[in-house]
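seq as requested:
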Amino acid sequence: MAKVQPRKILIAVEEIYHEGGPVAETPLLRGAIMAVIKNPFAGRYEPDIQWFMEDLKPLGREMASRLVERLGGAEAIEAYGKAALIGENGELEHGALWHAPGGYAMRETLGDAKAIVPSSKKVVGVGGRLDVPVTHINASYVRSHFDSMEVSINDAPRADEMALVLVMTTGPRIHSRSGGLEAWDIKGEDGLK
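struct tokens:
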């Protein structure tokens, strides 16, 4: 088993007051935490990679806790997403190893979140950018919470690294008015509606 030691961690929080419409009394907070780690499979094809998910679990829990704290506590979080940026000597499948550790860490930290955690992944060069999709934590069909956050770190991921990402928000898009299922109409039975 590999010891997961981040080279660096970045936390970014946006405070969104308006998108050209009325100014909100309370801003929408949209935050991301990114951990840049060594990719133990960089530079070679390795058939057995699933064991690395266990190693990533503690990092996922730490990242989720830190981001939740920055955004005002678990009760404030309404939407989430996750992603992985894989350095050039890695492969897309290495980023897929973040699905379970990152997703379950957020759900565990938030308590009773029911919806699947949306995700994206991409092999990039240093400074590569990626949009992280975001949906409501309890019902994926809540249209007001369909969102994304673009993430990047100027010196990462290096060719033998991965940047693992968690994103959370404190509410719907600031001027949401596109209709569909509303948060107050969630049934909470299956993570969809």
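The chain has one domain: 8-185.
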